[in-house]
Structure formats: C-alpha cells, structure tokens
Amino acid sequence: MFAPPRSLYVHVPFCRSKCAYCDFASAPLAEAPEGLAAALVDATLHRIDELVARFGPASGGFSTVYVGGGTPTVLPRPLFARLLEGLARRVVSPCEWTVEANPESLDREALAIMRGVGVSRISLGVQSLDDALLRDLSRPASAAVTEAALALAVEAGFSVSADLIAGLPRAGGLAGEAAWLLDRGVCHLSVYDLILEEGTPLSARAARGELALLSEDEALAERMRLESLLIARGFRRYEVSNYAPPEAESLHNLAYWRMDSYLGAGPGAVSTLVQGEVPGASLRLEEMRDPESYLRACSGEIANPATETPIAPRDAVFEALMMGYRTVFGPDHAAFRARFGCTPPELLPRSLAAWSSRLVPAASWPGARASWPGARPPVPRSADERALDGRGLDLLNRFLLDCLAELEERSPSCG
C-alpha cells in the first residue's frame, strides 16, 4: 500500500520559444500541430483521474499543486482556463497552488483566471535582469517586461517566487538583481547554477569559447554576496537552490524533499509513490515526453503513457538521504526509521563523522506544513538530527558521494 499522494505536478510542454540552455520536455506552441494543445489539456486531466483512481489522494483532493512547463501561461486564455478549472475540482482547501509563468506571457487576463480558481502562488521565470545576458540565453522578455509583469502579479495579491540563473556575469550582479526583485515584492527566490546540457545551443557556444562563465571562485563569491543580502532581508537558504523567510517555503517542493508520495501528469512528468514500511516497494512513473505519443497512449491506442519502475531498496535509501540533506531540515529520522528500520547515523557513521564540521542541528520543518490537510503531525527533532550548513550545501555532491560509497558497503536497511 503506497502512502496517498497529497501533491500533484502538471506539466505543460509548450513555451513561446526554446531557451538556449533548455533541455526540458517543451517546444514552442506556435510549432505545435493545430488542436494539439487543446487535446493535450483534456488528456492530461483524464490522466490525472486515472492516477487518482489508482493511487489516491485520500480525503478528496490535493493540498499542493504545481503547474509547470514549458510555460503554462503561454496557452490561449480559454484553454488556460479549461486546464485550471479542471484542476480546481481536484484540490482541497487550503491548497498551495503554484503556476509557472514567464514575464512576457503574464497579463491581467491570465492573473484573473488564476485568481478565480484559487491559485495562490506564481513562479516567475526571471533568470536575469541584464538585457544583454537575456539575449544570450534566448529569453524573450526584457527587464522592463519583467518589471511590468511582476507589478501586475503583486498588485493582484499573489505570492511571487522568482527564478535566477547563477554562474554568468551580469551588469548588476546576482545580489543586485535579487535586491531589485525583493524591493518589488518577490517573497521567494530560486537560484540555480547554470548547467550546460549536452545538445543545447548554449552548450555548443561554450564549447566554441563564445560564452563567458564565472570561475568557481567568482561564482562562490557571488553566492556569498547574495546570501549576505538575503539574510539581512530575513531570508534563509532552506534548500540548495531556494531562499525564503521562515514559513514562506514552497510546500510543494518540501513534499519532494521530504520524500512524500506525489503524482505527475502531462508529457515528461514524473510520479513517485512511496511505501512507508517495506523498503524497495516504492514506484516511479515517468510519463512519455513526446506530446503526440502521450495523446495516443492516454486514449488507449498504444501502451501505458508512463514507464513504471520499482525503486530498488538501496536506491530508495540513497534518494531519501539525498533529498533530506539538500535542505536545512535534514532527513527526518522518525520517518527514515519507519521506512528503512534505521536512522542515517546508524547507516552512515563514517561519512557523518568525516563531515561533522559541516553538520549542524537540523532546523524544524516549517510549522505551516503541520496545518495543511493530510500533512504529517509535527515531530520534535531529536538531538542527533543534523543538516549541512551553508558551505556544506555548496559541497553537497561531494558529501553524497561519500555517503553512497559507505552505503554500497552495507545492507540498504539496517533493521
């Protein structure tokens, strides 16, 4: 029996144009065959019903929903409304409901549709406020367009999260851009290091030496300036790439990092169903990426629209460690023991001892989560629950490699 999923991710695989760094399951809407987007919205809503009938959620609906892409707000407004109204029948109240948007596709009509169905949060793809850098990234919006879209969203009463890409030189600096966004009402920041994905135009430019990148030392110094600014503004780095004031964290993303069950629908979406007491019984579903094949699968013309893969015991243990240690909350020892029969200190004594200088007492999970429908009750943190400090989060991959090496020497459960 899988733990009932309380969180839903919906993937809209369309955007205005393909960014130079992007390898997501998305394509320009203008290039899609006529009628594909409408058919895909209907198929995705039908697919959600299939997943709910099989896996849950309990108590009638989802308590966090995230509509991502691509760019959901690029959809024609009647179709955008059809998608959100369909989702509104599948949520409970209160619900943290996030929709991704890019500045050039966010207008008063889209905001009114979102407000009408109960969307509470907008994740705005800013990436930079340097117009020259935005052109290099093939981003269609300018800083002026971003400012106008942000003003509309804040005026309409939404909580706004903004995405920035780090690792590239910009005129105002990363901290300067963050300050500009906070001054205009942004209450959550996601700051991602640039990843040069193979096969993307930006990767090809870098290989030809045409792209200026910050050195490792420059990137670290920029990150430290950013964190100093955010701390002064009451924010904290609560996950490797995410910053918010306490109690303003993304509840949907916390469900991923806490290893709760969640469902995903739409081309390229992923579901993870977690079995709480039997190691190895967890299941991952990866939906087809190609929209036209996905439509055929949802209609029954071809096989299951998702590849279903059981998560092996050792993989399940490592995923739980990886997700927990990427946050300031660390792994939840009570949940970890219930699932695997041990705690991280019992499983990884050598690695945790070697990294003891970078491990600090774990923060309490956000209190708002305890009041969310279907959320676990708050559990007091034990004295031995640890999380990585800021520098440790910067070195997360090295830490996880040490954990994996020790894990490979042991049984995946230590009950």
How far apart the termini lie comes to 20 Å
Main sheet record: 9 strands, mixed
Helix-and-strand structural type:
alpha/beta
Number of strand elements: 16
* Unreliable sequence segments: none
CATH class of the largest domain: Alpha Beta
- At the fourth level of CATH, the homologous superfamily of the largest domain is Aldolase class I
- What is the strand arrangement across the widest sheet? 9-10-8-7-6-5-4-1-11
Could you give the topology of this structure?
Blueprint: E1 7-12, E2 14-15, E3 27-28, H1 36-55, E4 62-69, H2 77-88, E5 91-101, H3 108-117, E6 121-127, H4 131-136, H5 143-155, E7 159-166, H6 173-183, E8 188-193, H7 201-207, H8 216-232, E9 236-239, E10 242-244, H9 251-257, E11 262-265, E12 270-273, E13 283-287, H10 291-298, E14 306-310, H11 313-325, H12 333-340, H13 344-347, H14 349-354, E15 359-361, H15 367-370, E16 386-388, H16 390-394, H17 396-407
Parallel strand pairs: 1-4, 1-11, 2-3, 4-5, 5-6, 6-7, 7-8
Antiparallel strand pairs: 8-10, 9-10, 12-13, 13-14, 15-16
Summary of the model, kept short:
This protein is an alpha/beta fold and 415 residues long. It contains 17 helices and 16 strands. The strands form 4 sheets. A 9-stranded mixed β-sheet has the order 9-10-8-7-6-5-4-1-11, with helices on both faces. A 3-stranded antiparallel β-sheet has the order 12-13-14, with no helix packed on it. It has a two-stranded parallel sheet with strand order 2-3.
